[in-house]
Amino acid sequence: MQGTAFQKIYTKINKITKATCTLTAEGIGNEELAFVDGKPAQVVKLEGNEVTLQVFQGTEGIATNAEVVFTGKPPVLKVSEDLAGRFFNAYGDPIDGGPAIEGEEREIGGPSVNPVRRKQPSELIKTGIAGIDMNNTLVTGQKIPFFADPDQPYNQVMANVALRAEADKIILGGMGLSNDDYLYFKQLFDNAGALDKIISFINTTDDPSVERLLVPDMALTAAEYFAVDKNEKVLVLLTDMTLYADALAIVSNKMDQIPSKDSMPGSLYSDLAKIYEKAVQFPAGGSITIIAVTTLNGGDITHAIPDNTGYITEGQLFLRKDTDVNKVIVDPFRSLSRLKQLVIGKKTREDHPQVMNTAVRLYNDASNAKTKRDNGFDLSDYDERCIQFASDYSVKLLAIDVNIDVDEMLDTTWDLFGKYFKPTEVSIKQNLMDKYWKGN
Predict the structure, then answer these.
(1) What domains can you pick out in the chain, each with its CATH number?
(2) Omega prior to 240 cis, within 30 of 0
(3) CB contact burial 251-272 (16+ within 10 A = b; e otherwise)
């Protein structure tokens, strides 16, 4: 809180709903932070001198004569190098028992980067997961969601990306995490000795759901500090954006706004875009790349949350269980990185584009062969080999627990080509075959 000279204090509330308080006040700014009877709140609506505050912990127990203290500024995050290795709550306060951060205060939730300051992304960002690095390569400054059913181990994947990704700083924004997930992240990062470059902002299921709305802005304010001020390569991991959107819906419903599709607020697109559009590649070398989890309801890709997300982002990554090998894989058919052409074969080995395309084509042939088999048709020798290839390809390359370098991914795929196919069946350019073919 600021010193008392800047604070405006009121003791008359005109209207109280489940989540908001409305009062008459002067000189108040939009998104300004306040405390209502000691509970944190934020200005969400201004009509003349009528101010509506969203109370994060709910308005239960607040009387009409409760003290309302305005701080004179929106929520802020203190930024410095000391953020690295720390865990914070949605307000940027430490939750790891360590000292408070000393640093410059930055307002959270500012505008996206001016397009004039953006550069065409061209740097590869490696995650160590072949289903991403080989088939759906990510580029610095990209924004991409993981679409996953709630029973998929998406937080495990996010944690693996945090440990493996080649970035200067990795910022985790956890929204609605179970305590088990929070402790999983904490212990994994601790044990891996990776905390020197990981910063975590955490809202758990025990915290008020409305506080989730602050988490992406906190994470991105920290990201902008390291990317802009320090010219660092920053990867922001947000999980779970569906729970973030649910919190938006809760607030808009309590403010009596008319819901749009799937009970979501009409502002959902702009609310999501405000977050995702923070992804950027700066000319000076700093960058912010965003990978966010969007959990699906029964695999429904048409729901308002994934639907709007798809319009904003540059592709999507799909997790699914491959029942043939009993492993969770990054689905090569439904995943797509729209920017991969900017780096594959340019920042990776020359054979990358052809190997990727050939492997996915053969994997598709295997899928067709399985359909033939399931419908009682006889399989050809080629069909049988495709099915065996697909099984090996899933285990050695698509499974999320595989952690190898891009060159090793390509070599492994060449090994599989040579094991199951004739040179004519892979249809790769002769100059690459002469150089890399490992078969008979």
Answers:
(1) 4-70 (2.40.30.20), 76-341 (3.40.50.12240), 352-436 (no CATH)
(2) yes
(3) bbebbeeeeeeeebbeebbebb
CA–CA distance, 66 with 359 (Å, rounded to integer)? 65
Best CA proximity match to 213, nearest among 172, 178, 245: 245
Q: Tokens at residue 365, please?
A: 């042939």
- Percentage, residues of the chain above pLDDT 90: 69
Give the model confidence (pLDDT) of 59-101 as tens digits: 889 999 999 999 888 889 999 999 999 999 999 999 999 999 9
- Give the tens place of pLDDT for each residue, 192-208: 776 788 999 999 999 98
Tell me, what DSSP letter sits at residue 166?
Answer: -
β partners of residue 234:
169, 288
Radius of gyration, alpha carbons of the chain:
25
Residues shown for the chain: 440
DSSP characters over 300-343: -TTSHHHHHHHHHSSEEEEEEEETTTTEEEE-TTT-EETTGGGT
**Tell me: the pLDDT tens digits for 261-274?**
777 888 899 999 99
Dihedral of the alpha carbons of 45, 47, 52, 53, in degrees to the nearest 10:
50
Q: Residue 270 and residue 262: Cα distance in Å, rounded?
A: 16
Spatial CA neighbour of 431 closest among 346, 354, 360: 354
Per-residue burial over 137-167, b = 16 or more CB atoms within 10 Å of its CB, e = otherwise: bbbbbbbbbbbbbeebebbbbbbbbbbbbeb
Q: Which residue has the tokens 């080995």?
A: 349
Residue corresponding to tokens 């697909």 = 390
Please return the burial class of 222, using the count of CB atoms within 10 Å of its CB with bins 0-12, 13-18 and 19+. Answer: buried
Q: Which of 7, 8, 6, 39 is nearest to 21 (CA)?
A: 39
| pLDDT confidence of residue 120 | 83
φ, ψ for residue 12, nearest 5 deg: -135, 110
The predicted-structure confidence for 19-35, as pLDDT tens digits, reads as follows 889 999 998 988 888 99
**pLDDT-based confidence at 6, cuts 50/70/90?**
low
Task: Please indicate whether residue 297 or residue 229 has the higher confidence score (pLDDT).
Answer: 229
What are the residue ranges of helices labelled H in 118-240? 130-133, 154-164, 179-192, 215-224
Cβ atoms of 239 and 200 within 8 Å: the answer is no
- Average pLDDT of the segment spanning 231-236: 95
**Taking 90 as the threshold, does the pLDDT of residue 433 lie above it?**
yes
Say what the pTM is: 0.91
